[in-house]
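Researcher: Sit down with what I've pasted below and flag anything odd:
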Amino acid sequence: MSNSPILVGDLLVLLCDARTKPFLVAVDAKSGRVRWRSEREQGMESFSTPVVFTPPRGPAQVLVSGSFRLDAHSVETGERLWFTRRLGYLPKGVPVLGSNMVYVSAPGTDQPTGPPFAEFLQKYDADGNGRITREDGGKDEFFRDHFGFADTNGDGVIDETEYNFIRTAGVGDHGLVAIRLGGSGEVTQTNLQWRYTKTYPNIPAPLLYKGVLYLVKTGGIITSLDPATGDVFKTDRTKDALGEYFSSPVAADDKIFTINDAGKVTVLKAGRQWEILVVNDLGEECWATPAIAGGRIYIRTRNALYSFGKPGPR
């Protein structure tokens, strides 16, 4: 699991998504006693941290982004109140709340990944038993690094059913979606407002700041969108800060801050037609999202924690 626990009043809520037996649990923050536990549908894998939505009327809700769907649970009881389908597979970024809207990004593909099972067997099934063991798949980078992920039942082999699930799981609906908040039961047809499938990120969460939605993805591609319609205002690159992006953008002082895995921090002038003000190079690997508090921005790299702010009086 890669998501974080969240504190809601006197409850600590943790999402425990997995291929099998996923659940959402709330425990008393002081004692650790389980207040409620909500079982989730099989296959609801995700790495996304839930967020809390408090409607104008009624108790707070926990919004949970999982594979293929978003669920809203009652904070008080854990009951699932409403949900929407047609989301991507293995979401990672945190859902972002807007005005009566939540924005969720989850990846996917239009075509299956990898060859059909018969071709994969022909290449890697050394003993001809119709299954792939860890030793067989050791020649393939994906299965060498993710064998346990593919071997769902833990029997030490990958059969055709398990292989095809991995190959096709992400096919279908994907991208950044805007979902109207609230309702009862399944609200896919009524609440899914728009979908954007081009320059959306795999890991970084979207950023909503002063009426503009910002996306930052690998390659230094930055996109600004209309949060009401999904229409694109501007897409361009931060050419001096390419590479991988794992951290999410943050904002303050009419500026957007993004940082790539090499530690290059791009500062943008916020707006529909955003502009690059400067790129600062920390020279250290960085995967963590910056934090902003008290007029300072805090950035954690592999080797240090930095605090930047205006100089104080001498």
